[in-house]
Amino acid sequence: MKCSLSNLFPGSTPSITLAKFKKLGIHNRFDLVLHLPSRYEDETRISQISELKQGTSAHVEGTIIYSEVTFRPRLSLICQLQDHSGIVHLRFLNFYPTQQKQLKVGQRIRALGEVRAGYWGMEMVHPKCRSVVNSTPLKQTLTPVYPTTAGLQQTTLHRHIQAALNDIELSETLPKNLLSRLKLSGFADSIHLLHNPPPDTDKDTLIGRIHPAWQRIKFDELLAQQLSMRVHYRQRLNRNAPRLKALGHLTRQLLRALPFSLTTAQQNTYLEISHDLEQPYPMQRLLQGDVGSGKTIVALLAALQAIENGYQVALMAPTEILAEQHYHKLCNWLFPLGISPAWLSGSLRKKEKQEALNKIAQGGTQLAIGTHALFQNQVLFPNLGLIIVDEQHKFGVQQRLSLRNKGGEPHQLMMSATPIPRTLAMSYYTDLDISVIDELPPGRTPVITKLVHDNRRDEVLERIHQACLSGQQAYWICPLIDGSDTLELQTVLETHQHLVQALPDLRVDLIHGKLDAANKTRSMTAFKMGETHLLIATTVIEVGVDVPNASIMVIEHAERMGLAQLHQLRGRIGRGTTQSLCILLFQEPLSELARARLKIIYENTDGFEIARQDLNLRGPGELLGARQHGIPMLRFADITQDTALLQCARTIADEMLCNFQQEARAHLQRWVSNKQDYLYV
């Protein structure tokens, strides 16, 4: 049983401390047990001062022979600590009267800190000091250093963790034969070793998290993740959703009217989706494909399958530009079929919005297209059968839940043009069925990517000038709208003004997120109709914009953008028959991360390979946007390094759910507890 902290520390732990524990994710005594050290200090032995080496951490003991407060170059407490072999200086830039008393001349202390070369010789800056007498024993285990927050001391954490370790029975949740087969150490032994490692423990394996004790903890965490998603998947199969038969009336009409044929990959993914829609439980499928692979037409075929069964469909996109682009494109395809989609966005006038709401609520529209406005309380669907969420990773869990709760158990189709690396899919998307469009439609020309230093801007301008005069169109992407004191970036407004002056014989327009909806639509329409040569834009055009005649893109300050964003932006060109060019303007100095990103985007056009390398660079936390989107993250395992453990956990999860259900429940209770409120909706 998991007791709360307040119940277990009545009167001894003030509420302010409990709040700090909660800030660390510690809500009960067992959370304390799983609050594992980030590093260790070795106070089990004493080093001779004469043997100290620069750049290493050392634990020394001696007598203070000098202790003075100096005022130049800044206020500092300077001490000299002497043992029989030599002297080391101790320097404190922030200190208190109690420290001065502890470090006065004649006091015997032990100091632990990093050794570095100082003005007077070897020194330690802000070492950890402890007063000792000749009989003070050395510690018998390495000293754990825990992740903490402001105002919560290591001593407080250590005391409560040790108390929890002594009080809680760390029972085993894995069957004995599995433990033996996997050659894993026991859970209790692993936990105790990580909190209190013996002095002969290899510190490198602890810090590198490759010690057998760490391997057990990481496996348990991965297993809990896999179990929770398997349980969620099985629960979904027991829920009731409308069976949407593939009647084929509308889909056949659409396919006959299209000016192109579906690729093999598009046909295969639609068949997978169509099969899911016919099932009596809710579909939860992710349709992923690289930029320009044709996900929209596959989603429309799915929508038509729901519509011809008498159900409504909601299509939600993260930006108004993308949602409106979907609306206009789908209207062109659907009007000949007698279907009039409804458009709903936050920028609609009150009367227009009410008309759209009435149309949806009365069942007068079979397809509603919009932004976040679709899941507001006043939007009512009487017969919602399918939800399509474009760029699903840009929506929070609460938002996706709000839309799903609009109508019973609708089927869900999520789309993403940001390919998911295999290890990420194995770990975080196991509860979803995944369809992949792994080929581009014929006629798409590969985009050439060039890295160009900002000092060659005039050459870039001339290239744009000549291309536009020959009938092509171009984008010029800027990362910010307003100026910034800390980021000296070219703003879209300044760039627009400069390019209008530099290219007077071209028609140059502007679009950014702060424009009202009418002006955004006007700018995009003019560009799509070929009335504008050069469109200056922020990253609002990152997804969904489709102008085949646009064959050149310049991206300002490419070194400051992420790989997924660069790849998405680059995907706005190369949609026609003209050879396309993406110019990445960068400024120096470049950080190592920026240099690595630019190298990857320059060398690769395959979105899956870019995503794989991005995962290696940033890890899953940033790639998934966990805090923004509510995805529970792994604390100990690293899927880029622990792939073998992840694969093993996937296999064992199925085995436990089939053969060891009681142990599986105990394991989930230990690791997942109350973290499943919005698990993978």
Automatic annotation (TrEMBL):
<protein>
    <recommendedName>
        <fullName>ATP-dependent DNA helicase RecG</fullName>
        <ecNumber>5.6.2.4</ecNumber>
    </recommendedName>
</protein>
<dbReference type="InterPro" id="IPR004609">
    <property type="entry name" value="ATP-dep_DNA_helicase_RecG"/>
</dbReference>
<dbReference type="GO" id="GO:0006310">
    <property type="term" value="P:DNA recombination"/>
</dbReference>
<feature type="domain" description="Helicase ATP-binding">
    <location>
        <begin position="276"/>
        <end position="437"/>
    </location>
</feature>
<dbReference type="GO" id="GO:0006281">
    <property type="term" value="P:DNA repair"/>
</dbReference>
<dbReference type="GO" id="GO:0003677">
    <property type="term" value="F:DNA binding"/>
</dbReference>
<dbReference type="InterPro" id="IPR011545">
    <property type="entry name" value="DEAD/DEAH_box_helicase_dom"/>
</dbReference>
<dbReference type="InterPro" id="IPR045562">
    <property type="entry name" value="RecG_dom3_C"/>
</dbReference>
<keyword id="KW-0378">Hydrolase</keyword>
<keyword id="KW-0227">DNA damage</keyword>
<dbReference type="InterPro" id="IPR033454">
    <property type="entry name" value="RecG_wedge"/>
</dbReference>
<keyword id="KW-0347">Helicase</keyword>
<keyword id="KW-0238">DNA-binding</keyword>
<comment type="function">
    <text>Plays a critical role in recombination and DNA repair. Helps process Holliday junction intermediates to mature products by catalyzing branch migration. Has replication fork regression activity, unwinds stalled or blocked replication forks to make a HJ that can be resolved. Has a DNA unwinding activity characteristic of a DNA helicase with 3'-5' polarity.</text>
</comment>
<dbReference type="InterPro" id="IPR047112">
    <property type="entry name" value="RecG/Mfd"/>
</dbReference>
<dbReference type="Pfam" id="PF17191">
    <property type="entry name" value="RecG_wedge"/>
</dbReference>
<dbReference type="GO" id="GO:0043138">
    <property type="term" value="F:3'-5' DNA helicase activity"/>
</dbReference>
<dbReference type="InterPro" id="IPR001650">
    <property type="entry name" value="Helicase_C-like"/>
</dbReference>
<comment type="similarity">
    <text>Belongs to the helicase family. RecG subfamily.</text>
</comment>
<dbReference type="Pfam" id="PF00270">
    <property type="entry name" value="DEAD"/>
</dbReference>
<keyword id="KW-0547">Nucleotide-binding</keyword>
<dbReference type="InterPro" id="IPR027417">
    <property type="entry name" value="P-loop_NTPase"/>
</dbReference>
<dbReference type="Pfam" id="PF00271">
    <property type="entry name" value="Helicase_C"/>
</dbReference>
<keyword id="KW-0067">ATP-binding</keyword>
<keyword id="KW-0234">DNA repair</keyword>
<dbReference type="GO" id="GO:0005524">
    <property type="term" value="F:ATP binding"/>
</dbReference>
<dbReference type="Pfam" id="PF19833">
    <property type="entry name" value="RecG_dom3_C"/>
</dbReference>
<feature type="domain" description="Helicase C-terminal">
    <location>
        <begin position="460"/>
        <end position="616"/>
    </location>
</feature>
<keyword id="KW-0233">DNA recombination</keyword>
<dbReference type="InterPro" id="IPR012340">
    <property type="entry name" value="NA-bd_OB-fold"/>
</dbReference>
<dbReference type="GO" id="GO:0016787">
    <property type="term" value="F:hydrolase activity"/>
</dbReference>
<dbReference type="InterPro" id="IPR014001">
    <property type="entry name" value="Helicase_ATP-bd"/>
</dbReference>
<keyword id="KW-0413">Isomerase</keyword>
